[in-house]
Amino acid sequence: MGVSEEKQKPAAANVALQAAATGDDVTRALPHAVGPEKSVLSSMLQDPQEYVSAAIEERLSGTHFHLPGHGLLFDFLVELFEAGSTLDLVSLTQRLLDRGLLDRIGGAAALTDLYTYAPSAGHFQHHLQLVKDKHVLRSIIRHSNEAVAQAYDAPDEVAGLLDSVEAGILSIRNEAETRKAVTIKDTVDEVYQQLEGLLAGERGALGLSTGYEELDRKTSGMKPGEMFVIAARPSMGKTSLMMNIVEHVCIDQQKPAMVFSCEMSALQIVQRLVFSRARFAMSQLTRGYKPVKSDLQKIKRSCIETASSRLFIDDTPAITINELRAKARRRKRDEDIRFLAVDYLQLMRSRTRQAENSREREIAEISAGLKGLAKELGIPVLVLAQLNRSPEGRTGKSLGVPRMSDLRESGAIEQDADLVGLLYRTAYYAESEEEREAEAGKATLLLAKNRNGETGDVPLTFISELMRFESGPPAREAEVV
Asked: Is the separation of the CB atoms in 429 and 413 below 8 Å?
């Protein structure tokens, strides 16, 4: 008998857990505060102008109320208030009766009881907060139960379940937090501080510096919440440009950052970073060149500087947007990353049902997810993207020159992005050796979209053997100018 009882204990626990997950456990009532709910509604009925608007400002909704009748009445009061209708007790009773809603809130007697429930509205804010707190507790229970139920269903995509659980809990926090309108004084003070920083020569007064003077001048740096898309055809050097910016952020500015690389391994990325910073062409080693003492010193110094930076690299191939968001959130929480870079957008995946049937829809979901992540974490996100073949089909001086409409597979990218830079090198399309030599090293980042500033060409110099971009045109061209 003892053995049988021991075997039944885990089974009973599982049944109880499954019952809780499916909502069958009715032994415990959900957290609620009926008294404060009635008090809030009473204050709104007695002084609609003051307290309906206060409830709207606090982002209260019908879903915050435990009793369905209370939630229904709240939504109806807000609807009438926004329409400018009279909210006295008699006309409100008639309107509810006309809509067939009076019985659903308990009848005319219940409405009258609510009206007289709170003799004073002095505790309105306190009671409103109690209503919101109980709603948060119920939301936690609901999301937890859903997570338990999904876990029992053994989903094929465990990573997707983790992300949905994490996103669900974060959504509760976001819903619970009320953003108050900022005062004009606070905003002016912030503007003036930015001005003082700019006058003092602080490069990061507005946003993170990219390390390229003309680009920083046009954009005022990469600002929190912005998505910066750098797009190009293959072999233009977009990964090199991204890593040059990452190097400037992590090593020169000493800001923690994270790179998601769907194409290159972490080892390849770090090799590029170390040798590019040391200004030593790694290709020389394959040709039998033996580094001299000065070369080794520069490489060693570069290794030390790179190792001391707070750069985190994830080289998961074909990473999903859900996985990327989950990992980025944890890095933001644990390491307070200030910058995120993704190489590149079209190599990512989305696992939703809508995305399975449409590549354009998939890219749109990924693009929107990255933009949303930038706003959620309050950091700039740099995203690389591929262009279609259209630049190669152009003729004359337009040969190879990209346009924003060339963004591959989705127009959603250009809509979501705050900044769009189109990278190209004219030497790549040169038809003769003489023309190729004349255009060697010349590169342009065409800033095609800048939501908060000017657009135009950003001249760059590409040092192919170092896989490195530098500010301004090649030296010979700068001398001519």
From this structure: no
Tell me the average pLDDT of the chain.
Answer: 80
Domains of the chain: 34-176 (1.10.860.10), 208-480 (3.40.50.300)
Strand segments, DSSP code E, in 217-303 are 227-232, 257-261
Burial class (CB in 10 A: 0-12, 13-18, 19+), 363: buried
Which of 380, 377, 391 lies closest to 422, judged by CA? Answer: 391
How many Å apart are CA 307 and CA 174, to the nearest integer?
A: 36
- Please give the torsion angle defined by the CA atoms of residues 292, 296, 302 and 303, in that order, rounded to the nearest 10 degrees: 150
In terms of C-beta distances under 8 Å and separation of at least 24 residues, what long-range contacts does 439-442 make, across chains too? 440/474, 441/474, 442/473, 442/474, 442/477
Exposed, middle or buried, 215 (CB in 10 Å: 0-12/13-18/19+)? buried
d(CA 43, CA 304) in angstroms, rounded, equals: 65
User: Comparing C-alpha atoms, which of 112, 121, 131 is closest to residue 62?
Assistant: 131
**Half-sphere exposure of 474 toward its Cβ, with a 13 Å CA cutoff?**
15
Contact 439, 430 (CB under 8 A): yes
Of 182, 183, 220, 215, whose CA–CA distance to 198 is shortest?
220
State in Å, rounded, how far the first CA of the chain is from the last one: 96
Q: How far apart are CA 160 and CA 145, in angstroms?
A: 17
Contacts of 238 (CB under 8 A, 6+ apart): 230, 231, 232, 343, 344, 384, 423
- Enumerate the H helices of 116-205 as residue ranges: 124-152, 158-176, 184-199
Q: What positions carry a catalytic annotation? A: 263
Which pLDDT tens digit goes with each residue over 173-224?
666 655 555 456 666 666 666 666 656 655 545 688 888 888 988 888 898 9
Distance CA 56, CA 59 (A): 5
CA distance 33 to 132: 9
Which stretches of 177-234 are DSSP H helices?
184-199, 213-219
DSSP per-residue codes, 231-243: EE-TTS-HHHHHH
What SS3 class is residue 261? Answer: strand
Question: Would you give the DSSP letter of residue 392?
Answer: G
- Quickly list DSSP for 12-61: HHHHHHHHHHTT---SSPPP--HHHHHHHHHHHHH-HHHHHHHHHHTT--
Query: Against a cut of 0.70, is the pTM above it?
Result: no
**ω into 344 cis (within 30 of 0):** yes
Nearest CA among 114, 109, 36, 35 for reference residue 73: 114
Phi, psi of 423 (to 5 degrees): -95, 135
pLDDT tens for 285-334 read: 777 777 788 888 888 888 988 888 898 988 888 888 877 887 888 888 88
